[in-house]
Fold this sequence. Notes:
The structure is a single chain. By secondary structure, this protein is an alpha+beta fold. The chain has 2 domains: 26-122, Peptidase S8 propeptide/proteinase inhibitor I9 (Alpha-Beta Plaits); 126-478 and 621-626, CATH 3.40.50.200. The protein is built from 17 helices and 33 strands. Strand 24 (544-546) and strand 25 (551-553) form a beta hairpin. Helix 8 packs parallel to helix 12 (414-431). The chain is globular and about 65 Å long. 54% of the residues are buried. Residues 4-39, 143-148, 595-623 and 635-640 have low confidence and may be disordered.
Amino acid sequence: MKGPIKRAVIAVFALLSLLLALSSTGRPTVQEVRAESNPAPASKISPDLLAEVRKAQSGTRVKVIVQPASAAAPLALDSLLRGLGGRIKNQLRHLNLRAIDLPAEAVTNLAAHKEVRYVSLDRVTRSYGHITSTSGADAVNAGGLLNLGALDGTGIGVAVIDSGVDTNHRSFVNALGLSRVTVSQDFTGEGRTDDPYGHGTHVASAAAGNGQIAGGQYQGIASNANIINLRVLNSQGTGSASALLSALDWIISNRTLFNIRVVNMSIGMTAVESYRNDPVCLAVRRLVDAGIVVLAAAGNNGKDSSGNKIYGQIHSPGNEPSAITVGAANTYGTDQRADDGVASFSSRGPTRSFQVDASDIKHYDNLIKPDVVAPGNRVIWAEALNNHLVTTHPELDAGVSSWNNRKMMYMSGSSMATPVAAGAAALLLQANPNLTPNLVKMILMYTAQPLAGFNQFEQGAGELNIEGAVRLARLVRPTAPLLASVGDPLLTTTGLPATQTTVAGQTFSWSQGIIINRTFATGLNLITKYQKIYGTGLLLGDGVSEGNDTQTLNPQMMTSGLTLSDQIQTSDGTSLASGIGFMPVSWLLGDGIIIGDGIIIGDGIIIGDGIIIGDGIIIGDTTLQAQSTAFGGDPTSRMR
């Protein structure tokens, strides 16, 4: 063999050897991956995904969200995913998540690997549907508060994660006629950012609609805030958890550029897995830790088809403790608040999401939610052009105007209540830009009005009181969240604010307490002294140490002089601590099963109408949906 030919043959054999070596050490085959795997513990797969896997036929593919065990070695995880036949749809780098689809039969093999912390179903999402006066927003810029400067949300970015925004609607321009929708992004794949469904426009105008229509009768709370339009619900009002996660990931990247301080999520899905594992809840926590106030709708499953109360139906991400979860109040169309109550449809706590340990034992979260309630029954705000809701239900049009960009519509739901609270958060941050999300949450709860006859699973700390919240927020030391230690003065004054607010001639008391996980705390030190739990990277619940049936204050996080309750209260309307005991707090601790089919608790209401089964897990759809009832609202409502 001649030299050149010999060298060529050697080169070919070398190349073949290299290719064989690469093929043997490259991406593993499905069979190789399975051979390496150990059986996956149930604790690493969400219950609804496990149910899908068990009933799936051969060849079925499922969409899932994968949580890596760590931020390290992403290439190893991606190789594993592909080796199991997975297709990576989205890499959410700021949230350290992967949205993929893969064969259903590969899910348990995937979860068994050490590179994977948890695997969840990529759930479908759907939309659920006089206020400035009754909420106390008008009082912020009247009387004694006027000389402190008007508040209208100027400069604050409010992200509305919903079905889009009709940017041509008159509700969204500023005094110069320029749009306050500073950016629009679509995460549905439809390639549009308007609002063909009609939910997001209504929600955005509740938070930040101006007063340029009908003499300001339908003005939003933060009427000059900037709106960040993030569309995750499609033309039919449905979306996916992965689309929602993409929007949250986008916020992390762009929060500084658009000064995004508040995020409104009037959407939700059945809360199955614990907030400790739910990828949407984990993403919400990332935003809150980054200094962003996140508000989530409680849901609209507070009653059954016969009108009976149902407990335990708080939706995700409303079950996340760092979020401000908002239920719906019924104002009966009046400015004065003596007749206000919790809307019958508004979802009640406790949260019944759970995690499963290695012994297949379920551990329930059992958090008291919602945190507050706000007006959400038959409210009137902006109507998107030719939207699906009004096209199919013309009775939702409020008859305010015949001009397309001035039309208004009715809707009801915790969807409508949540942006009222989001607008309030924007006002607090304008009044005191250094407030942390936990301080905003504390202030909204401490100043809320307890509604007589409703327990804390129904109303949290009470009905939103914007006048009181802004007044207290303005007194918080600007440097407190940055420099204070536990026990340092929280306020700029030694004098205490009056703990009452007057709306429409009626004076009511503040709750003077805060909901903390499975109990509530009261005491003046909540507002006179800095508590470590007011900082970022912490939960308000970190201030409490829990045993199987007891709770105590954590002295590293909270000062003395505070009281923890051992009872869930049905309020008498005077304060968070006053009223009749509804049920012991100890029932929420440990793993006690407190809600089961046919079990009667507290006020004698039978829990469930057949949708609550066995050990009390409430089975609903797993769709992410807008939290508005849209059609009708509370049957006891009466409008002027």
